[in-house]
Every structure is written in C-alpha cells, then in structure tokens.
Amino acid sequence: MPETLAGYEPAAAAVLPAAVRDFVAGGSGAELTLHRNRAALDAITVTPRILGAVDQPKTTTKLLRTPCALPLAVAPMAYQKLLHPEGELLLAAAAAAAGVPYVISTLSSTPLEKIAAAAPSWFQLYWLRDRNLVGALIDRATEAGCHALMVTVDVPIMGQRLRDVRNGFALPPEVIAANLVDKYTEAHKTPGTGSAIAAHTALAFDPAFSWRDLEWIRRRTDLPLVLKGILDPRDALTALDAGADGLVVSNHGGRQFDGAPAAIDALSSVIDAVGNEMTVLLDSGIRSGADIVKALARGAHGVLVGRPLLWALALGVPADALTTLGRELRDAMLLAGCADLTAVADLITGRD
Predict the structure, then answer these.
(1) pTM of the model
(2) Which residues of the sequence carry a binding annotation for FMN (predicted)?
C-alpha cells in the first residue's frame, strides 16, 4: 500500500478505466484553479515550535456538535460505486472506524439511509428544481439521524469539465443517483457529444438558487446548517446573517469556476469576517497531514478530504488511507511542536 496519502492516486490510476480516472481527477476549463489549490498549499510555510515536551499529540475535536477523532470530515462525493462495488458503504465504514464524519452526497449511489446507518453522517444538499424533492431529502436526512446539513452553493450549473466532455462520460447502468430514483436518469445516457453528467445536472439543479431559498432551508430544519463553496468574505457575512452555523471555504476542488482563487488563499479573509461566530472548514486540495496543519494554522477548524479517499476506495482500502492521514497529522504536529489542535492554531505561517 502507498506510504503517503498522496500515493493512492497513482496506485488507483493503474486499476481504473481512463474515463473514471478523469472524472475523479479532472477540473473545469483549463484546470487552472485545480492546480492553483496545490500550488498555494505547497507555498505555505509553518514555523515549528520546539522543546514543548510533546509525546502523543491530541487530535480530537468537535465539528458542528459532532465529536471527531481527527479534525476532518470525508467530503461529499457523488457516485462512489464507480470506484468500488461497495461504494459509499465501504468509505463510510472507514470513516466510522477512523472516528470522523462522513458527508453523504445528494448524488450518492447508495441510499442515504443505508449510509447514515453505517457511520456518523452529515448530508450534503444540492438545490434542485423540484422544491418538494428538496424538502423530502431534508426530511429523509433528519429521520436517518444525520447530524448536519451541508448545502452546496457554488454549482448553479456544472463547470465545463473538458475531460468528461472529450470522453463522452456517462454512468454505467449499475451506478445510479440512489436518492433520486426514477428522477433525472439522463446521467446514464451516452451523449452524442459532451458529458451526460453535465446534462443531468443541467436538468436537475436550479441555477436560480438564492438567499431567499436558503432562508427557506433554514426554516425547514433544526440541523446545524453549513454552506459549502464560500470564497468571498461578504458572502460569509450574509450566510451568518441568514442563520448558517458553518462554512466550507471551497472552490469545489477546482471543478467549478476556473479562475477562482485557491481555497487556502481565501480562508483568512473569511475567518476575519466571521470571527468565532461560525465553524469554518477548508476544502480543496488537502493531500497530507501537513496540509491539515497548514489549514488549521490559517484559522480553519477542520478540513474536508475528498479525492485521495476516492483513490483509496478504488483500491478497496479507504480505512488504510484514513489511518495514513491520521499518522501524517500526528507526525506533522510532533514536528511542529504541537501537543493539541489549539497549539496548531497558534503556529505562525508564511509563504515561500
């Protein structure tokens, strides 16, 4: 097995069909933002502390009322049965074993109730054209015992993912949007040109999603409400006023607006805007325990981890990947002289 979290991608590439590999790895447009995420994280420096008598760093925390053994959650990711026959259930079981929340995607290929039974879960919601279906999904997530509702706010339409367009990518018949059964089946239709996934989202998602709709969601649920896809501090303040409990600073892993800043570069201004009033997570580009230290030192309360866990899922070993990530985080904390996550937040960061 790979020695580092980043090592799972090349190992998975050897076993996946090229089109599936591109679906996971690709970004939108020229993939400028996709690459910017890594470049920005790589450029951040962290100044270690010394002689702190640190032996066993404590990585435990609480995110949105959910106790966590590590300061992270598994990011919401669609159609995981593309990577492994057990799909979401295998990755959710790994999250449960690691003691971290699993975020269920609206577009999961396993019904949300089965996933929520396998792991402490949050539910990720897309705003759909059918408001009754949106309400039903919120109700189902609540009844299934999900601990938070994460609303994705940066996908009015799907960014043009040129790898999928070139591949004419469509879902195989056995992989379905299990929470939308009998709805929006276009994701399975091989397009004459373009991406069937993009055609599916164009039909299903409502690009006119607004703050008023978010207020409707806030009234509909008592669950902690998190907005995923915030980059501008002005939007962070509006989210606070609208009753959101948390934010995910994210550019969708470089898969939406190609030209957006790296998520880590947007983090500080969002933190400055909302202070301690909200839980703030960082998504987009996390590939190591050292990356988590950088995010927390820049003010995040935790991170979402996405693509590396899909690569590990393709190999059938997501639990190993989370174990590797936990080890990397503890090693990074030891090397930075941090006994706990409070000490990590106090580290000085710079830019190479």
Answers:
(1) 0.96
(2) 76-78, 105, 124, 152, 228, 250, 283-287, 306-307
